[in-house]
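User: Small ask, check this?
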Amino acid sequence: MREPTPTPEDDKTPDTDEEIERAFREAQIQRERQARERLERGVEEPVPPRRPNRSDLNAPVEPKTMRQSSRGYHNEGPQEVEDLIDGITFAARYLGSTQIWSDRNPSKNVRMLQAQEAVSRIKVPEDETQPSTEIDLSVSTEKIQVINATSQEVMMDHALRTISYIADIGTILVIMARRRPPRPQHEPGTEVTAGHRDKKQHKIICHVFEAEEAQLIAQSIGQCFQVAYQEFLRANGITEDHLSQMDYQEILNSQEIFHEDLEVFSNSENAKEVVIDKPKGEIMGLVIVESGWGSILPTVIIANMMHGGPAERSGKLNIGDQLMTINDTSLVGLPLHTCQGIIKGLKNHGKVRLNIVQCPPVTTVLVKRPDIKYQLGFSVQNGIICSLMRGGIAERGGVRVGHRIIEINGQSVVATAHEKIVSMLANSVGEIHMKTMPQSMYRLLTGQEQPIYI
């Protein structure tokens, strides 16, 4: 149900754009100072080896095995569970960092290409001196810290949940983390859209290190995710009875697919052809949003209508209606910005023909979960569904990415704290009834965003 680590949000984590950039500047200043000192000396002085904070770090590592930890569950990986919870420190050299834009869910191959690109930006040719800073890399189930080995000042501090990929390429280690952008400074109730990137993309920061134990460090960070998830299950009272893939598949096979779209689309009375007459030069007066990943037909939904505009005047359209075609052009599967462009192009038309499916603005979801040990298969952040496991019980129940949860089992959660919503879902069994709607539509209907009509 959750992303790699269930650690709750910590607003104090110093991983905002400004703080990372400040760390870059400080590290760069130190590297330049070290380079000047080496030039003034005229010779390279041997650097004495640093001792890691843990005496057993550089000892030979056992082959990767599955063994029982003292906390009562199986542990697969090179490190002891207790050590990962307390934190392990590795000696490494920090070479630099770079930023790239990335899709939110790129493939493993794409992530590796991104890591290689980061290395190519930072690593200098073999015949040149590589600027670097000696650091201690602290790894735990809570966070990853980059600490200056000389001053012991924290250069970077990332919550484990923000780490999106780790790559080891020989002795080079790349750690990629999602960046938290600074909160926009604008008046409440206004929408800032101009000049912004596609919301499906986000900025990631790639830190490049050099260490003899690069592979071991990467394995240890990966193991941290496993341990953090097991700790989450343990904290929520889930027993050590492990759920095999076969067990989960049997649960899926025993469930019927509940999807409000099935009922809506199978009823021919809900499909309508609407013809709207309007003066040329007048916009349609619509706001549309995506139906959300998980809907049977990916298309756009009417989220708002301009008072007195052609769409509202016609009396034939309602908020929640899904648009299938406009003037014989199908909108199914098209990106939101493409659909918006098609509607904007109707300004000079006097007659517009639309095929719609009448749907309520609120989506009904029914997830069947026979036992708490079966994962729901989706994650929630501040009441918004942000990821969905393909083929899981949540997808079969009609859960959609990008929707805000309005109600759980008859109880409104619009003003409920994130931790409370997660707890309600994590501890729910049997039939879980939810009502959701697209987050963009919710913000428009509640006045948190001003509509931009097209």
In short: The domain at 17-182+194-235 is CATH 2.30.29.30 (PH-domain like). The first strand starts at residue 66 and ends at 68. DSSP finds eleven helices and 21 strands in the chain. Confidence is low (pLDDT under 50) at residues 1-17, 43-68, 186-197, 238-246.
